[in-house]
Write a structure and sequence with these properties.
about 110 residues, mainly beta, 7-stranded mixed β-sheet, 4-stranded antiparallel β-sheet, about 0% helix, about 50% strand
Length: about 110
């Protein structure tokens, strides 16, 4: 049973930065693609960024150039570096690996 634990969310002013982390338990990590999703109030959950086992990355258009997804297989951790944050980035952010999901971490962008 894989468990994913996110951390790093919080309140930040527009234009600020945050880095989210998601640590995985279990023996298998490096063969899986990893992803970050987010869900804002009243909206559907959307894919934000994804990184393959071969380190290929993909982003939703709205975060392209501002967010960076990365992974550290030795630490079994995936990261989401978020720069130039906007109020519309406010959401609960979830990491996902295979069929497992983290519990979510709140990101609020507000002055």
């Amino acid at each position: 049973q894989v468990q994913l634990v996110e951390s790093g969310g919080g309140l930040v002013q527009p234009g600020g930065s945050l880095t989210l982390s998601c640590a995985a338990s279990g023996s298998i990590f490096d063969i899986y693609a990893l992803a970050w999703y987010r869900q804002a109030p009243g909206k559907e959950r959307e894919l934000v960024a994804r990184i393959s086992s071969g380190y290929r990355t993909d982003y939703v258009d709205s975060v392209q150039g501002r967010f960076t997804i990365s992974r550290d297989n030795n630490k079994k951790t995936v990261y989401l570096q978020m720069n130039s944050l906007k109020p519309e980035d406010t959401a609960v952010y979830y990491c996902q690996m295979a069929r497992s999901w983290g519990q979510g971490t709140q990101v609020t962008v507000s002055s």
